[in-house]
Amino acid sequence: MIKEHIDLKPEIFLLGIIPNKYSKKNAYLVIIVSAAARIVFAQHWKGKEIPTEENNKITKMLECVFLLIGKDCPFLLRDLLASQEFVSIFGQPVMDVLKVFIGSPDSLNLRNILWHGFVSAKEIPVKYFSMLLFLTAGLGQLLNNYCLQAHSALIHRPYVSFIHLKELHIFPDLNQELLSLAEELVTKSNIVLKTMIPFWIAAITSFQQARYADCVILLLPQLEGGLRVLFTAVNKCPSRLMTAEILAKQLNNEEMNQLPIVLGESAMEFLWDFLNHQEGPRVRDHLSHGEINLNHFPREIANSMLSFSITLLCRFSQDDLTSIKEHKSLKLLMTCANNYCTKFHPITQLKKQVCSSLFSHCCYCVLNLQVKFKKLEYLQPFVLFRLLIELCSKHIHTLYSPRTILETIVVLRQISTHCHHVSRQVISVCETRYEQWINKSLRSRQRLNFLRMRRSIKLLSPVFQLVLILITLELANIDMICRKNTFEYQQYLKFLKLILQYIENLVTYTSPEKNKWDETIVLTHKSLIKIRIFLGRELMLVQLAETKNTVSPHQNSIGLT
Hints:
Residues 71-138 form the DUF4209 domain. This is DUF4209 domain-containing protein. By secondary structure, the chain is mostly helical. The chain has three domains: 29-46 and 55-150, no CATH class; 165-339, no CATH class; 346-547, no CATH class. Helix content is 62%, strand content 1%. The protein has 25 helices and two strands. It has helices spanning 10-15, 29-34, 58-69, 77-81, 84-90, 92-102, 110-115, 126-150, 165-168, 176-188, 197-208, 212-234, 259-263, 265-276, 283-288, 299-315, 322-325, 328-338, 346-362, 381-392, 403-438, 444-476, 486-509, 517-549, 553-560; strands at residues 7-8, 50-51. Strands 1-2 form a two-stranded antiparallel ribbon. The longest helix has 36 residues, at 403-438. The N and C termini lie far apart (76 Å). The relative contact order is 0.07.
């Protein structure tokens, strides 16, 4: 059980001396050392202590070293270690030793087997820990010598900052009572191997001590290990523990993965949000690549990850824990987990963009240049805002979205992004020019340009409403794409890209540098004609299909006899 906070002095790394207090139970420090950032570099050692929180940084710092003489840095650590750039800096013998310890699956592969939760606290010999410490010190000396000879300095890439912390705060704050229940659940859960209990307890202890990075670093491999145990049980494949495709829709034999069905949609969306989606926190990726400042790791993320893990422990625990499962605070956690909806799937991100674009469009209402609709009162900006927000609130299943849907969402998001850009540009120019108009500070040419802009806006405003309506309706009916054949889908995508090209041109024409307002009107008219032709063709095809599928009463009676 790992409860103590261990401070590693620079002398320990430089001399390769391992104090007796680093027992085999502290094997998790192999992860820390194998990825320590500031350990690698001599300039970070002088006059500084190196706390254990500085873990998982060797990947980040090796990338920084690569960029001393390389350009495109490999993503995978094994590719990084195989690069010739490192051979020229550290030498081939050193790189061969690194490959033995943290290289490909053919090596000891210490980093990966620990990150994936494959080993217990007693299964990594302390001599490996000692060797990594000694090797890391040597890397620092070699790098320092290289920088002196090459007259170059190492530039550290900035840390990744977690944003949207309010969205990442999913569960109520964990209190001491809940953490005590969690410790009991760890010992009774069916997805926790007995040899891994010390890691679970250490993660809970780290949270109690406000060491949130340590908590998540310890927790993630165990969460993965627990899901692997569950995967092998529900798919009835005990031999697949080390090769489990936990989050995959199908297994290698094309059978359906039963784990998502057992976990449920909410749990799967949580895992995808926090670990996989590109615009989510991608907690494991950033931590394992040393991209996070661990001294400022957000409590919100640690609270959400630990709370979610507690709900899994509770769901898959022994039946004699009724009193614990009925605890009020624990039931509240379960409710939050069961009601979770994705926040970072591309579809959800598109919904946010549409809302943002709607708000931007409604800002026209605060301008004296606001367009007045006489025949289309129902399309007034605020009415439109309410209608489209209601459509955006419609629940859409996002788990395992087909490729065609994801491709469509990409184009729709690009259209929405550029619409927002154009809106902000127009509003900014309008406010500036209107103020100058009132103050009579515009030159003759600027006044004419201002009048052209007013005429252009009268057309742009309803067109923008049309585009936002199209995006929202396509989003609300996104599942219909799966019914299109290849030709229909290609034509549909071509239509969306036509709109995208139009909006991209608007970004240029409405920029303060261009101010091409007459050209904007011409471009809009041409694009509207193309949109009308496509929609007319689509409507005709729908009507033909309906006519073809209409069955007369006489035909129906014949068919039934």
